[in-house]
Every structure is written in structure tokens, then in C-alpha cells.
Amino acid sequence: MSGSALIYDKEMTRYKLLWTDPVCEIETPERLMVSYEALKSKGLEQRCESFPIREATEEEILLAHSKEYLEAVKQTPHLSLEELRTFTQQYSDVYFHPNIYHCAKMAVGATIQLVDNVMTGKVRNGMALVRPPGHHSQRNAANGFCVFNNVAIAAVHAKNHYNLSRILIVDWDIHHGQGVQYCFEEDPSVLYFSWHRYEHRSFWPYLAESDFDGVGKGKGAGFNINLPWNKVGMTNSDYLYAFFQVLLPVAYEFDPELVLICAGFDSAIGDPEGHMCASPEIFGHLTHLLMSLAKGRLCVVLEGGYNMSSLAQSVCQTVQTLLGDPTPVLASVGSPCHSALESVQNVRAVHQNYWNCFKHIGEQELLCVRSLSFLHFPQGLHDRASVMQAVLCLLLPMAYEFDPGLVVQVLGKCNSKQEVPIWAQLTSLLQGLAQGKTLALLQVSTDMARAGLWASLSGSPGPSLGPLGTPLAENMEALEAQRQRLKSQWGLLLKTGVSSIFNDFAKP
Ligand code: Q9C
Ligand code: ZN
């Protein structure tokens, strides 16, 4: 299966702010126009499959919103300018327009179309360029430029229609998608990860539940992962560090059947909302790192992004990677900043009771002084959870920081059925480096190993690993020892102790 969908309709550029409001003026029709034009001018649009788009039905909107709210929004096309302004005032940081209801139905419809085309195998992955965005909108409320929750609705639709039991939503927009969190906080079948500008709750939407201790509720405890950024100016290194140390270990353990991205590009450099410093190229890599999950079923859906040039470039990097082009060169990957280390450590600590991959955090801090022997797993490749930890938390961070021009992969014995998927995943992940230039040398091999690796080398998403189990303590000790030995040379291997905020929280 191959091919990438691009879902877009010019109709969604046909609404705008009709009065003066400094908060809302950044959300413009140009956002969609420049993104689409950039894709066209780079020849990317014509390499994608396009599908006609439709309005979502009322039934679909009701998957995540109340009847009362839908009825209220349904009236907005008939309101006068003054009435629209009054209607708008009951919500935070959002505006209405006579055509926004129509566009909001198109945005939901486009997102569902994308999911359907991916789930039925018409394409492997794709992106929906939509307006209005969705991740802030809630059961009974518009919020933060969002009217209907495009991604949340599409996730519920996918669960119902394809009988899925594990969906991963990655929200790399710079704002917390609290609407998505509220929708799934008690639902263990949808894992929601969001990083967001937080600054100790002094940034919009100023919610306590956006902090790292917002882990979900009831059966959904552990399936909501918030990574608050407490400083602006986060870089490529901080974003990669978050992926390697938090999102990817959990994502591989969760083993999703479908991945949805709330793709806001206000997390890129130059954005007037985010004030972060990550380059547009990082989104090619973030996309690549998620492409080997869920057999490559990846749906990217636009959320925010308010700097026209940064937005357009980031969209192009994302689509180019979805199409399977080599990932771009990343300038100077190095140490994450202190604040990022602290946030990451807090998330890992608060989630250690829910995820096997974080189980041995406390112990590692004690043993680091004791054992400094060479990394050698007593249980070898039988402990696949530890192997994935070694790959995601040690090998990949160093590899990204080293920034090689060529990757040579030497595989020793790769004979057991167990090992092939792991090696194939590693092969896929390593193709994010050196613009995909990989040389794989197999020493001893079977047809099965050859076929598995060949598929990964030729761009197939890595195979599902199934349940990984809990990493063995002795293997994790060996891994931590190795990390301790290497961390002075590799910034992406740094960690910090938990912050005082976490200690307070953790008290019984
Ligand atoms: N300067 C999305 O990115 N305004 N929504 C915050 C603080 C609300 C953002 C004001 C921003 C909403 C989809
Ligand atoms: Zn945003």
C-alpha cells in the first residue's frame, strides 16, 4: 500500500473576522491559501491523491458535541453582524462569521474523509488542510478559533466504524488541545499526547489540567500525556528529546492501530503565539518518527500556525515526508534546555505507574553510581521492551545529535521470528538520518529477515511489535549505566531529577 492523500477545499478560506479583535486577527484565510500554494509550487500537491470533500453530517458532529451546542451554531448563518458579536462573547478567543458553520462542517468532513481513505487502504497516509481548527472546541463550547473538534470526532468515528481499540492522537500544536483531553480523559482506547506552551499556567488557556499531572481519569488514567513547556524558545533538540524520552516509548508500548496528528505549526519558529525556535524541518522528522507506528496509518490534520512563511514551510516538510521523500538535514541537534529536561522528567515520573517503559526511573538514579559496565543485556533480545528503550532513549538520541552523512547498519544474527520486527523498526527509524541513506549489512540471514528488512529499507512502515512487556530491571540498569557514561558528550541523553512541584504532587 502506498500513496498520500491531500484533502483540501478552497471553500474553507471563505470566512474571516468581521470586526476588530487583536486576539483573533491572526486566524486568517491566508493561512490555508499560503499552505496550499506552497504545496503546489513545490510540486507536492500533484504527487498526492486528492479526494472530493463533503460536509460532516449532524450525526457525526454529535459524536463529540451536544445537541444544544449544534443547534446554537446552526443558527449563526442567519445572525446579523451585531448578533454574531454577541453570540461570540459567550466563548473564549473565537469569532463567528455567517459562513463559519458551513466551513466547520467541511473541516470535520475532510478529517473523516482522510481517516476513511487511510483505514480502507486507498492511501497509506495523508494530510487535511482545514479551517476552522478543532482541538480547543468542547462538547458545549467553541474556543480558541475552533468550532467543532475535527480530530476528536474523527477518532470516535474511526473507533465506531473500524472497531479500533487503540488510537494515538499526537498534538504538536503549541496550545493545549483541552477539548481533545476532555473528550477522551476517561477513555483508555484513545491515547492523547500534547505538548504546549504553559509557563507555569501563565499562558492561555491557563488551565491546571494542562499540567504534567493531568494523566486522565478512571479507566483512562495514564492515557492522557501532557508535556508543559515552562519557557519559550524551545528548539529542535527539545522537541526531539520529548519524542525520544516520552512520546515514542509510550507510543511503541501502546501499539496504536491508527495515529492522528493535531498538527498545529504555531510550535515553529517565528510564530506570534508560540515564541518557540524549532525549525520547519523538525516537522519532517516528527512525521517520520510517527510513520512506523500503526502500519503507517497516519492522518495529519491542520490546527494552528500563524506565521505565514513558517507555516507554509512546515506544511511542505510534513507532506514531503508523508510522501516518503528523504528527511531534511537538521542543523545542530544538541542538548535540550534545563526547563525541557525538567518537564520531561516530571512527565516520565508521573506516568511511571502507567507505562512499563518508565518503570525503572527511580531505581536508575540510585544505580548509576554503582554500575558502569558496558551495555550488555543479560536477557539479550528476548527482552524486547528493553531493546526498544535502548533504541529510543540511547541510540536514536545520539544518532540524531551526531547527524551522520550515511548510516551503516550491521546486523549480526537476525534469525528468530521475534527479532525481525525489531530490526525492521530500527531500520525504519534510522532512515530519518542521513537523508535516508542507509546501508544494511546482514551477516547471517533467513528469507524472513531479508524480506522484513528489505520492506523497511524500501520505505514500508515498520511492522507492529505487539505487546512489549515490562523491561527487565537488570537490562534497564545496564542501559542507565551506559547513558551515564555517555551523557557528558551527548546533550540528548541528559536527564534531571524531578522538580519540587512533582515532589509536592507525589506526596501521599
Ligand atoms: N496570546 C489554535 O492554535 N489566543 N488556537 C491566545 C494569547 C487563543 C489558538 C491569546 C489562541 C487560540 C488552534
Ligand atoms: Zn495553537
UniProtKB/TrEMBL annotation:
It is found in: Nucleus. GO terms for cellular component: nucleus. GO terms for molecular function: deacetylase activity; hydrolase activity. Residues 27-321 form the Histone deacetylase domain. Keywords: Hydrolase, Nucleus. InterPro entries: HDACs (IPR000286), His_deacetylse_dom (IPR023801), His_deacetylse_dom_sf (IPR037138), Ureohydrolase_dom_sf (IPR023696). GO terms for biological process: epigenetic regulation of gene expression. SUPFAM superfamilies: Arginase/deacetylase. Its main location: nucleus. Belongs to the histone deacetylase family. HD type 2 subfamily. This is Histone deacetylase domain-containing protein. It comes from Electrophorus electricus.
